Amino acid sequence: MNKSLIKTINVAIVSVYLIFLAGSVVRMTGSGMGCPDWPKCFGYYIPPTSQDQLEWKGDTEFKKGAIIIHNEALYVAKSTITTDNDFKEHNWEVYTKHEYAEFNVYHTYTEYINRLSSVVAGFVFLVLLWKVTFNKNKIRGVALLTYLAFVGMLFEAWLGKVVVDSYLTPYIITIHMIGGLLIIGLLLRAKFLISSKNLSFVYKYNKTFHWLLFSLLLMMIVQILLGTQVRQFVDEQVKEYGFEQKEFRLLDPNFNFYFHRSFTIVVVLVSSFIFWLNQKYILGYKQVRWILAFLFFEAFTGILMYYVHFPFGTQAIHLLSGALLFGVIIYSLFISYRLKRFDS
User: Among 145, 209, 182, 151, which residue's Cα sits nearest to residue 323?
Assistant: First the structure.
């Protein structure tokens, strides 16, 4: 049963990372408001495919809650109605949560796929909850971690609504991303508790390696927080200059950007030394190679975004690499802490 549970936890972790990927594609394409309402999209469970479906027409039935774009504003049907020849405002109410009233089929379906990825992850988590609850070979802490991760997913779903209703307020997006990383951390901890037998036969403890790994985790948390500040600056530039003017996204960046960029050098040096220690003392951490690989992709895409003005795909790879790097570091640290306990 534990093998089956580990597989389900792995699928849950992958599903959360897919949400990260889908969300980064939404940001990369400027599709955050592709669906201006939540949880539906323009009042539909399956979004419209053309502007014509969102325009008011005479002699047409509109279901209660359906949204139309009329006079450059969103209107919501108060009840199921069949229109006549004239638009009657008493049948509609203006959508007041924000003033965004545009339709772009590509943006709409990009955001819709992002939401579908969350729905799929939700079903995976339900299966995981069922397995954890009825697992006969219970391991202390696993159920609690899983329940907390599920509560985190519910919070993230609600926060997704707040992101849309607030018209993509940057600090709310930041909280949304950090919440996702915490869920990954909870799931990785649950996986570790189940699969942490016989660690001493695979890995060796090294004090310097351990504390450098811990330092690297702290550095990555700093980098993530700095990165969210840079992303907020980019969001403000996009709102001021427009989504298509990519050359202005990092125009005259603030101190946070330069510190974020320069601090990457320190992260690379520490990661390289960790790799060297792992090789020299044969510590057994295969995860270190992934740390260097994800760090390379994160640094390289950061260089491209600054010097080549955000080539297509770089934002998505940059964000996903950072999230994967966080996961690999924290799981490696779980292993090292357990070995530290054995060693002491």
Answer: 182
Closest CA to 231 of 337, 305, 340, 311: 305
Token reading at 206: 């090294």
Is the separation of the CB atoms in 187 and 150 below 8 Å?
no
Q: What is the pLDDT of residues 104-150, one digit of tens each?
A: 999 999 999 999 999 999 999 999 999 999 887 788 899 999 999 99
d(CA 11, CA 125): 9
- Kindly state the greatest CA–CA separation across the chain: 82
Q: What pLDDT digit, counting tens, does each position of 11-56 carry?
A: 999 999 999 999 989 988 888 899 999 889 998 899 999 988 898 8
Q: Domain-by-domain residue ranges, the chain?
A: 1-34+104-195, 51-94, 198-344
What CATH number labels 51-94? 2.10.10
Q: What would the two tokens of residue 280 be? A: 């020299």
CB atoms within 10 A of CB 334: 18
Q: Residue 93: beta bridge partners? A: 76
Q: What are the distances in angstroms from CA 63 to CA 16, 33, 59?
A: 34, 22, 13
Cα–Cα distance measured from residue 96 to residue 100, given in angstroms and rounded to the nearest whole number:
10
